[in-house]
Amino acid sequence: MFFLQMLINGIVVGSIYGLVALGFVLIYRASGALNLANGEFVLFGPYICLVLMTALNVPFLVAFIGTLIISAILGLVVERLVIRQLQNAPTISVIMATLGLSSLLAGAVHIIWGHTTRTFPPVFPQTPLNLGGIIVTPVYLWSFIIVMILLIIFSLFFKFSKIGLAMRAVADDRQAALSMGMSVKFVLAVTWIIAAMVAGIGGILLGNINGVNPTMSAIGLTVLPVVILGGLDSVIGAIVGGFLIGIIQNLAGGYLDPLVGGGLKDVVPFIVVLLILMLKPHGLFGSRGIERV
Questions:
Q1: pLDDT digits (tens, 9 = 90+) for 83-108
Q2: Distance CA 16, CA 22 (A)
Q3: Has this prediction a pTM greater than 0.85?
Q4: If you compute the radius of gyration of the chain from its CA atoms, what whole number of angstroms results?
Q5: Whole-angstrom Cα distance, residue 42 to residue 290?
Q6: Half-sphere exposure of residue 68, counting CA atoms within 13 Å on the CB side?
């Protein structure tokens, strides 16, 4: 039963990891750079949602939608004011810009909301569910359902919508997309908007599970092994990698941490990624580049 309990917790947390990793992958596919401020995007979501619920006394659903709108605006502002100015700069310049943005956003969170842990008002039912002897907290179950619905919506969006197809075209070949009359600037702006929104959603779900404090931004580092494991340019890889890392991390926390005094749970994902990359350098689903010499 303990194994199944850890497995279910890992699946739920892993689904949220996959959702957050999706933002990493989208930006990498569009610009070839890693967004090192993704953890701070995750952090802003639950704080905004909490302010809307507690200060304005709006229902969770309204606060959730409001958070998505504000997160989208944040993503658009970052793209317009920072990323667009670096469109002809080396990739390392973009990465360093996101690193600086990470520090700026983290500082803003500390100044505005402080360091204490805040909890959401009861949003989901509080009575645990007993599924064949396995205790499942409703917040875990609903978080998993919400993430699955969102992942299906995003999959359909990328496959069938005009904007989704344009994003895929720009990711595959920017010059070809330009020659077909596509607006790369518009596509990049939409990419950052979506990345900020999925990060905010992930933060809200994690905030309902564990509470909200500035250390939540560490998920940006935790999700990095997810992205690398699945493949930096693979949406499917981000989802599969999220589940794998979530399950492995929870099993390590349940079985190995008591043996070594704790701390191994946060290290195991990086060990797993290192071993996988020794066999598959491009990740499980990453595309292999072709180099002419």
A1: 888 877 888 888 899 999 999 999 99
A2: 10
A3: yes
A4: 19
A5: 34
A6: 10
